[in-house]
Specification:
The chain has helices spanning 2-7, 24-32, 45-50, 52-58, 77-87, 103-108, 118-131, 146-159, 183-192, 206-216, 225-229, 242-254, 259-269, 271-274, 280-288, 292-310, 342-365, 378-388, 397-401, 422-432, 443-465; strands at 13-15, 37-39, 43-44, 68-73, 93-98, 136-141, 161-167, 197-200, 220-223, 368-369, 375-376, 435-436, 441-442. The chain has 466 residues and is α/β, with parallel strands linked by helices. The chain has 4 domains: 2-237, TIM Barrel, CATH 3.20.20; 238-339; 342-383, no CATH class; 405-465, no CATH class. Belongs to the Dus family. Dus1 subfamily.
């Protein structure tokens, strides 16, 4: 608790580490709107230790960017220590990411996919704790049972963890199956350990924060998605989205970051506006924008469109047809993005699947008529269409194919100049020095070419002799 109070100054309102999203400009914007502690994005310890360029970009900060915690992922104690030693002078603590549930974490064998390897995690936390000048903290996800979650937290505390962030979701709760975080697990951990506990999950507004502190007993609350859609969440405000958007662009001008980060933040700030079908062109243009000036132009256009409604100069008629979600506030105000529940998502997927199957059945059963008005199957209709697209054959082709070769009983070639079958035609051309274009027999031509080449070779030999 001394670390939380004396070093971090008792932060309650905390912005989570977010890959490609908690960069310096966004951290400064969040601090302006009430954030008391921020984390860097998750940094890959092996790359950080080896790549000076990656390290320099990851540690970009300034005087106003305090207090700050640097977060690392990895699975090798020595490499993570090497990275942490390079970062400890730029922050007040080093956090170990044990909560990332994404596929990249599974492939890289870090984040939440280490939570079953307690011996390795104890070694990592203990190694960093004993060799760094700054404290070591951890961010975890819960297990299926409270008992195992508590044992997990106690193991990390014993290894040297000085502050613990508990995400009340399981490792498998992500994407459309995210669902709600269970705060009772946070409460169980808080009552079982002697280090500060931060609660993570379900924070979409200031009321959620207050309720979370009461129900969990945690010393602070961390939010990620709620902060991205409304950076003024910690102040209990819902400003027009163009205000924080322009403030963020000003900070990004001062402290440059990749344009992909900027684009991602604007998509979230304007999510509800861009969800309106009539604004699809704005969404496309924002996705294609690749300069700060283009971003500013789009923000100004959105402001010009909705500021008259915000100031009461025009009447906004609330309708669920105007945007994708039945949200309580007008779409130009910063507000949470509310996901479907996992049950609703699964039901929608199943309904779409059933609709597709029904359409396929209807297509297969659909009745077609031929040129004479008779009902035929879809398969036969396709075959008739293919036949109709075939080129027409010559009228006399069938009759000619029944004629016999003048020399034998075989059918004659339809294009043979001498009205012979191919074998007889070939013999005739060989004996009489002829060509037959119908059978592509070129005896005469080839002999003439051979004579020409022989004549040229003879001339070369005479020239060489003389």
């Amino acid at each position: 608790m001394d670390f939380w109070k004396d070093v971090l100054s008792s932060p309650v309102k905390i912005v989570a580490p977010m890959v490609d999203a908690s960069e310096l400009p966004w951290r400064l914007l969040s601090r302006k709107y009430g954030a008391q502690l921020c984390y860097t994005p998750m940094l890959h310890s092996a790359i950080f230790a080896k790549d000076p360029k990656y390290r320099k970009e990851a540690l970009v900060s300034c005087g106003e960017d305090k207090p700050l915690i640097v977060q690392f992922c990895g699975n090798d104690p020595e490499i993570m220590l090497e990275a942490a030693l390079l970062a400890q002078d730029y922050c007040l603590a080093i956090d170990i990411n044990l909560g990332c549930p994404q596929a990249i974490a599974k492939r890289g064998h870090y984040g939440a996919f280490l939570q079953d390897e307690w011996s390795l995690l104890h070694n990592i936390v203990n190694t960093l704790s004993k060799n760094l000048r700054v404290p070591v903290t951890c961010k975890i996800r819960r297990f299926e049972t409270k008992e195992k979650t508590v044992q997990y937290a106690q193991m990390l505390e014993l290894a040297g963890c000085k502050m613990l962030t508990v995400h009340g979701r399981l490792r498998d709760q992500k994407g459309p199956l995210t669902g709600l975080a269970d705060w009772s697990y946070v409460r169980a951990v808080k009552e079982a350990v002697n280090i500060p506990v931060i609660s993570n999950g379900n924070i979409q507004c200031i009321q959620d924060l207050e309720r979370c502190l009461e129900e969990t007993g945690a010393v602070g609350v961390m939010t990620a998605e709620g902060n991205l859609y409304n950076p003024a969440l910690f102040l209990g405000q819902n400003p027009p989205a163009w205000i924080p958007a322009k403030e963020y662009l000003d900070l990004a001008d001062k402290y440059p970051c990749p344009l992909s980060y900027v684009r991602g933040h604007l998509f979230k700030l304007f999510h509800h506006i861009l969800s309106i079908p009539s604004n699809n062109n704005l969404r496309i243009r924002l996705g294609a924008a690749n300069t700060m000036n283009q971003f500013r132009i789009i923000i100004d256009e959105i402001r010009d469109m909705y500021e008259p409604y915000h100031e009461g100069l025009k009447l906004w008629e609330h309708s669920t047809d105007n945007y994708s979600q039945n949200i309580a506030l007008p779409p130009w105000l910063c507000q949470p993005y509310v996901r479907d529940t996992p049950e609703d998502h699964i039901k929608k997927v199943e309904d779409k699947k059933k609709e597709a199957e029904q359409r396929e059945k209807l297509d297969n059963k659909r009745e077609y008529e031929d040129s004479e008005g008779r009902t035929i199957s879809r398969k036969k209709m396709k075959r008739l269409r293919r036949i109709s697209r075939r080129p027409e054959k010559p009228e006399n082709m069938h009759e000619r194919s029944m004629e016999k070769c003048t020399e034998c009983v075989n059918p004659l070639g339809s294009k043979c100049l001498y009205r012979l079958c191919k074998k007889c035609c070939k013999d005739k051309c060989y004996i009489e020095n002829l060509d037959c274009k119908g059978h592509r027999i070129l005896v005469k031509t080839r002999r003439e070419v051979a004579k020409m080449y022989a004549s040229q070779e003879m001339k070369k030999e005479i020239v060489n002799i003389t």
